[in-house]
User: Which sequence fits this backbone?
């Protein structure tokens, strides 16, 4: 393989016109330049210079090799710059896992700012529930995850992962605008035992949260409709087919439905999670960007707040 240093020296010799001038330009001795050119001739098996007593003259082969060397050296410089960007976290690939409600509210803010600051940093997004995201993180298939945990549904993270609190998402009750419950400022869970509920699937954390909350108040919620799509749940609520427990990030006021806080608030907490042995240099800057976007979101959406500290 041809030595890139020797190729750079060849280009410099042809540019400056002599070994001596090339030596001065590169801060080498003329003898070192001569040795490098001799080594390049051996490696390439080409005669690059016609040597006379007091001068050297480049051959046509040297001219051709130097032309290709300039392109190769330019590519190598680009590669070195790209590697430096990857080491600094401004280029490469960042693999992120998240869930729908944060994807629709927080990620557009963060991704827009990230694209302007780091246009060379590609992002791969996987959407799923916390169990899936935590598994992919632990297996090294994701660099960063956004996951939630309800106060009433504890979640333990694997020891190989570390979590950074991002947002606190108040859980509220959605009711139809025409429902008498909409006239109340706050709702006491104990008074909702006879209501019909619209809920997520049985295995979802939202369902477990509703069941735990109802159990605290001595009843089992009656559920006729289930969907893991909050837009569907809001639509069912808007025509007064039931009421629903919903995180504030999923709330969309209007279109026939309104939200009311619980008298005794409960929360869903959202964390940034990554592996303790962080190998992607883009992760720290991504965390900083997400924290900034979260601060903006907390100012704009009722029921969303930042964790203390």
Assistant:
């Amino acid at each position: 393989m041809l030595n890139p240093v020797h190729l750079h020296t060849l280009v410099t010799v042809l540019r400056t016109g002599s070994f001596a001038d090339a030596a001065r330009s590169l801060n080498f001795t003329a003898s070192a330049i001569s040795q490098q050119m001799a080594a390049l001739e051996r490696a390439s098996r080409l005669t690059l210079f016609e040597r006379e007593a007091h001068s050297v003259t480049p051959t046509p082969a040297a001219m051709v090799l130097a032309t290709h060397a300039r392109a190769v050296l330019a590519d190598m410089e680009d590669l070195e710059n790209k590697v430096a960007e990857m080491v600094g976290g401004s280029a490469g690939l960042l693999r992120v896992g998240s869930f729908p409600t944060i994807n629709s509210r927080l990620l557009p803010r963060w991704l827009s700012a990230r694209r302007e600051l780091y246009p060379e940093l590609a992002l791969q997004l996987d959407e799923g529930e916390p169990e899936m995201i935590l598994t992919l993180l632990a297996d090294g298939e994701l660099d960063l995850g956004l996951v939630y945990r309800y106060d009433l549904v504890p979640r333990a993270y694997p020891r190989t992962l570390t979590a950074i609190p991002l947002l606190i998402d108040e859980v509220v009750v959605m009711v139809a605008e025409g429902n008498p419950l909409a006239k109340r400022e706050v709702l006491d869970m104990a008074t909702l035992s006879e209501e019909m509920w619209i809920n997520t699937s049985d295995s979802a954390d939202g369902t477990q949260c509703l069941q735990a909350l109802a159990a605290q108040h001595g009843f089992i919620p009656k559920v006729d409709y289930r969907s893991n799509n909050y837009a569907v749940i809001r639509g069912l609520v808007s025509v007064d087919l039931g009421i629903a427990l919903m995180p504030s990030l999923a709330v969309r006021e209007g279109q026939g439905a309104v939200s009311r806080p619980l008298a005794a608030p409960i929360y869903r907490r959202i964390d940034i999670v990554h592996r303790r042995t962080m190998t992607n240099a883009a992760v720290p800057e991504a965390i900083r960007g997400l924290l900034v976007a979260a601060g903006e979101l907390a100012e704009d959406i009722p029921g969303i707040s930042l964790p203390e500290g």
Remarks:
- The radius of gyration is 32 Å.
- The first strand starts at residue 49 and ends at 51.
- The chain has a mean pLDDT of 90.
